[in-house]
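Input.
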Amino acid sequence: MGLRKLAYRLYERRLGGTLGAMETPRHVGVLLDGNRRWARSVGLTDVNTGHQRGADKIFELLQWCSESGIEVVTLWLLSTDNLNRPAKELDPLLRIIENTVRRLVAGGWRTNPVGALDLLPDGTAAILKEAGEATSGKPGLIVNVAVGYGGRREIADAVRSLLLEHASKGTPLEELAETLDIEHIAEHLYTRGQPDPDLLIRTSGEQRLSGFMLWQSAHSEFHFCEVYWPAFRKVDFLRALRSYAARHRRYGT
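Output.
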């Protein structure tokens, strides 16, 4: 082991030890950003290699989350905007996502699809739905796989679902308008029944959420990391947890 790796290993162990008595987030959302830029930075011409390395990194992250006692992880793998990419870019990415979901199921992770599945190709949507059904009773960490996801789309879908539900019951629109509150909409989100994310992490140095979990992140803490996602280390993860634990959370202004 090189001196650099040894130093990181010792630092990682020390950092992990300091987190033992600190508050741990129940739900962590991660924007897995920088796959293509990482590939270019290491001299690779095929950016799909970056996407594959990013997919492999997911399984390391899940192990770290499980060790830390985190209950829910939401991984943003593909946005609704990404669906507009040319087929030569989108198709290989969808294959990587499909294989990643299969690996999650094979590994025993409770896999919950999050997104507008009706916008996805039939084959991809079927794999996601089957993964959710096959692992719904699994104990332990819940892994939300956000594919074809957009925060605005989620809110629109939640409102649409709410209206259709009440229409099926014959509820007059005026009555619904008088009784509608925040919780009614929250009950129709993709993540209904789950705690809102306590911590959102974005890699690659970008300092924006790009519409990720717009509704649920009202009181979330944000952590922006400079490293590209495929190069994300356990040290970077522990730093995010340390940053979260050091904050005094305010559920207002």
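The chain has a mean pLDDT of 93.
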